[in-house]
Input
Amino acid sequence: MESSCDETAAAVVSFYETERSILSSAIASQVEIHALYGGVVPEIAGRAHIEAISGLVYRALEEAGISADELDAVAVTSEPGLIGALLVAVNFAKAFAFAHRLPLIPVNHIRGHVAAAYFAYPDLKAPFFAMVASGGHTSLIDVRSPVEFVTVGKTRDDAIGEAFDKVARVLGMPYPGGAEIDRLASRGDPDAIAFPSAALRGSLDFSFSGLKTAVINYVHGARQRGALPELPAGGGERADKAVADIAASFTAAVVRAVISHLEKAHARFGYKTLVAAGGVAANSHLRSALTVFCEKQEIRLCLPPLSLCGDNAAMIGAQGYYEFMAGHLAGSDLNARPTVRGAD
Output
């Protein structure tokens, strides 16, 4: 079960070392609700999760063709995320596990994103290196074992997906704007505007806040000069070209920052396998750059299918298997945490 942000999800997975399959995956998206406000409203997200969680869980069981009595355990996202949202699935999972006398497995959301790759690559085994890029997270992780994650780089402010959505919003695009930025970037000139790098020197950390602010300031300046209409999207050939160039240049700056730090990480850790996960891993420009980088460095690239890049419960089930095998179980006192304990 998953409810860390704005999507309620439930899934049934059959997961062993030799078999990794998704029997069912049900997701209730809140995009239309939050689009009215230009972003996720935590209180509204929590209430929507409450309305959806029970029906989704039993729908997932029905689609999988099994009963609750046939389950071996219940895995649930317990951290990190919006606290009000997290609490919905955590409390439902506790009650469900208690009622059916099943072990309860708390799962870290970031680890879950990485675990999505296990479905697409059945032979994937740790150790490997991982990059998680989503609306709430940007992390570079040394995955030493399925349950030993060491974060070696992260964003110090905005997450990569958050930066995409905020830039899209100032350009007049509806929430979530990441997909539209991706589409427009394909039509623009990535070298049209020189935006600053989000890759911090002397570390493997990122700062997307400065890049985001640079783009927003450029847009405001262009509008004040009359070079960019107030509502550019669909505003004529000149306006569309200007917006496409901004999207392309911004996307290129993001991709360069990511590849730059992956190159540094490769020089430091010498990893042979890279897993790229999270919602932003669906970005076509990032996927293309990762493919080129890994081919050049002779690194195996593991990219989950687009259906498993966003928040889903199947990935929580996959990571739940490894946490279960490691004996990482929880009792009825399990609580949700908005931030991650320790470094990861």
In short: The beta strands are 7-15, 20-29, 74-79, 104-108, 128-133, 138-145, 148-154, 273-277, 300-302. The CA atoms of residues 160 and 290 lie 16 Å apart. Residues 232-236 have pLDDT under 50 and may be disordered.
